[in-house]
């Protein structure tokens, strides 16, 4: 017999977006069940944001200390690999989700362990770990928060070579002797930084001509320079044609050359985890990102009961943006359940600004990279009349205090017609916390004239804002 249960809202996927939707609807007076086949907390907690940044923090701290005369003399040894990995493990709770489950219980959210799939309108069938099944009926909404998985490109023999994906790279229990990385994006750069610092010989094989090619060119250039200085071999314009594993090594063929490493990490993008969700039972094509409106309601589904948040909708594959979408989505579900009319125009304008035009991200390489909004190239492609200004952050007093010989660059992209910032990029030590100030400026559409009155504290790295405004002019 299949157990039958009803809730106001059923969420498939207990990562941060799913947790936030469930929490928001329960706070709004609705009942909610969340379905999870793996660990409550999802990719971010166990295999992405948290463990990767824990791996990188020790390296960053050592680099910062070595860049300050006096403090540098105290650095007399290398990084303790075992302690670094143990600290990483502590941030994943040793891949146990007891604490996250306690949060669900405390919030009044029901957890259903197992694989959840749509089995018809407003219905989710859960195959439990014991082989039993439960059908959950949603009175108000079903929310898909299933995230994404690492893509494996169709390279001859690569799948059979048992490659690492980002999950392996962030959870490995010891450094490999050598690591070949296929890709030049965020995961590739962060994991090259982390494992190189822990003693692994790293080579990056990048198909494009530069690293971080979705950002301003100087971001990838400065990260590549530091990686090379630290011993990473960075090859651009390289295509891997074939792979094979033999004698405990992976052999990659690229441009007629054979490259050998103990492990190969594939960091070549992500694919939506929507292929096994029963989307065909409600007239949708499996395996694709789901089209949603600005309340994250899936388009093309009768009666508007299906929603998708986070990576599943493909709008922004970033944890903080998935959580942002979840808050908006949960609020919309609560309002609609009460019969309240949502002002789609005002709502849509705000969400579109955050989700498209003011999306922030930080890359925890050495140096750090922070970016929000459009690059200059993207702004021009969108038809904006813009002017860009750059400034070397090392010329700011706060930066010179932060590190001897500070090297870094800041860039603003300004819409000349509205006199507002539409893009900002910062590269350098300690710039992660600068990113939010740019996010506020862009999301709030603060004019250049008004920004002159946002006075940065002296002597901080934030004074670069003043120097950028002076470069731009009155």
Automatic annotation (TrEMBL):
GO terms for biological process: 2-oxoglutarate metabolic process. The keyword Flavoprotein applies. Residues 7-316 form the FAD/NAD(P)-binding domain. It is an enzyme of class 1 (oxidoreductase). Disulfide bonds join 44-49. Coiled coil: none annotated. GO terms for molecular function: dihydrolipoyl dehydrogenase (NADH) activity; flavin adenine dinucleotide binding. FAD binds at residues 53, 116, 146-148, 311. Gene3D superfamilies: 3.30.390.30, FAD/NAD(P)-binding domain. Belongs to the class-I pyridine nucleotide-disulfide oxidoreductase family. This is Dihydrolipoamide dehydrogenase.
């Amino acid at each position: 017999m299949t157990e039958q249960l009803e809730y106001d809202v059923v969420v498939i996927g207990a990562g941060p977006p799913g947790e936030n939707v469930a929490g928001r609807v329960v706070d709004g007076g609705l009942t909610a069940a969340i379905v999870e086949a793996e660990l409550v907390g999802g990719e971010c907690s166990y295999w992405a944001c948290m463990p990767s940044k824990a791996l990188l923090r020790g390296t960053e701290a050592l680099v910062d200390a070595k860049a300050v005369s006096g403090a540098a003399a105290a650095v007399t040894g290398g990084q303790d690999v075992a302690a670094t990995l143990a600290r990483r493990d502590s941030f994943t709770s040793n891949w146990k989700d007891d604490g996250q489950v306690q949060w669900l219980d405390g919030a009044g959210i029901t957890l259903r362990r197992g694989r959840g799939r749509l089995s018809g309108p407003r219905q989710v069938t859960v195959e439990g770990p014991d082989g039993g099944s439960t059908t959950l009926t949603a009175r108000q909404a079903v929310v898909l928060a299933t995230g994404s998985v690492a893509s494996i490109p169709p390279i001859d023999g690569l799948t059979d070579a048992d490659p690492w994906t980002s999950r392996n790279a962030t959870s490995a229990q010891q450094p490999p002797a050598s690591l070949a990385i296929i890709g030049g994006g965020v995961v590739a750069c962060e994991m090259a930084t982390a494992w190189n610092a822990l003693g692994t010989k790293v080579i990056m094989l990048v198909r494009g001509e530069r690293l971080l090619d979705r950002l301003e060119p100087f971001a990838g250039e400065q990260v590549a320079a530091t990686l090379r200085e630290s011993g990473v071999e960075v090859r651009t314009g390289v295509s891997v044609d074939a792979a094979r594993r033999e004698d405990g090594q992976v052999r990659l063929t690229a441009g007629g050359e054979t490259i050998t490493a103990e492990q190969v990490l594939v960091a070549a993008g992500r694919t939506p985890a929507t292929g096994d969700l029963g989307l065909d039972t409600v007239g949708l094509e499996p395996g694709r990102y789901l089209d949603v409106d600005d309340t994250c309601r899936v388009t093309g589904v009768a009666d508007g009961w299906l929603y998708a948040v986070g990576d599943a909708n493909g709008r922004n594959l970033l944890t903080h943006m998935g959580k942002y979408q979840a808050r908006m989505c949960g609020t919309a579900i609560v309002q609609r359940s009460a019969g309240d009319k949502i002002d789609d125009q005002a709502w849509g304008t705000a969400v579109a600004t955050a989700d498209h035009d003011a999306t922030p991200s930080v890359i925890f390489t050495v140096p750090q990279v922070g970016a929000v909004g459009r690059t200059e190239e993207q702004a021009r492609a969108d038809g904006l009349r813009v002017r860009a200004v750059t400034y070397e952050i090392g010329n700011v007093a706060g930066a010179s205090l932060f590190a001897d010989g500070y090297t870094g660059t800041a860039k603003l992209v300004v819409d000349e017609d509205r006199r507002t910032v539409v893009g900002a990029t910062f590269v350098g030590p300690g710039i992660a916390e600068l990113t939010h100030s740019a996010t506020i400026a862009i999301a709030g559409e603060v004019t250049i004239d008004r920004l002159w009155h946002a006075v940065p504290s002296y002597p901080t790295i934030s004074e670069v804002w003043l120097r950028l405004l002076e470069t731009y002019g009155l």
